[in-house]
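Entry 0007
Protein: Terpene synthase
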Amino acid sequence: MEGPSLSLLRLPAALPCEPSLYAAAMERGTRRRVLALELLRHEPAQVRRFDASQFGLLTAHVYPRGTRERLELCNDWHVWLFLFDDEVDELVEVGQRPAYLKAYVDACLAVWRGGALRAEATPLERFTWDLRRRMGRLASEPWMERFVHDVEDYLYRGTLLAARHWTEGTVPDLESYIEQRALDSGVFTAENLVEFAEPGQELPEELFRLPLVQRLRLLCTRVVALTNDLFSFEKEVLWHRNPNNFIHVLRVNQGLGLREAILTAIDVINADTDAFVACEELLHASRLADPRLLGYVEGLKAWICGNVHWSLRTGRYSSPTSPFPELRRQASP
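Output (structure tokens):
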């Protein structure tokens, strides 16, 4: 019997917009940089996995109107997140060594805050320094401060907490996990790039801090992060025994079978999507017609929709043993 279909996920209606045509160019540029920095160490298996992931396609979907230079930076940051995530979630020597991971995180954050590279800087630190330098030339200081703050939350309040659960073999309660996942997904940082990808779209603080905008940000983050847990369940839980996954948390906390946990997860995600749409309607009714704000909300919707479109096409999650029929069919020869 086939498992539940990912088509049960509801997506918000968005303005028609084709993915950026720079996908292939972004892919080549990022690939060249990560190989030059030895982030993949030229190992054939790692390079094949990187190529199969098609990260440029994700960036093309979620920032469809960005300029090429800025999109390459967005793509590089996405790759930074995925490579770091793979190290922390899959490598015991990283994810289950709290002191080592804390020092690793501290070193990367020091670079994001404008510090110099250490003499013994890791490839990821050098990649961080390159990103910080290039972003700083294009973004305003207030935007950079917001971005770095969200990176800090991602690493300290998200990643380190998730790593502690993996190290100690503990499973958080449902509410705590949803809060943790919003942070350790890195989606807040990616939402900031909605303002960065296209020149002139940075939100002034008075718009960014509106309660309705903050609510939309949180709901988008939850939808994208928990949806990613569906696609990555097999890799994270079944292959690497990592407890930080929404389906696993539901199974443990509510005593559910796999099918019931998946359906419950989809119901929670769909409820957040419905709440996002309701908030969007309130925003339009409020007559806050600043085009930057309206463009920002479209960018959040592009993330919700683009994340699903890319996850169904990338080779990152396809597997002949996936619980989802769409991912099994994709893995078929």
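Curator remark: The two ends are 21 Å apart (CA to CA). The chain has a mean pLDDT of 92.
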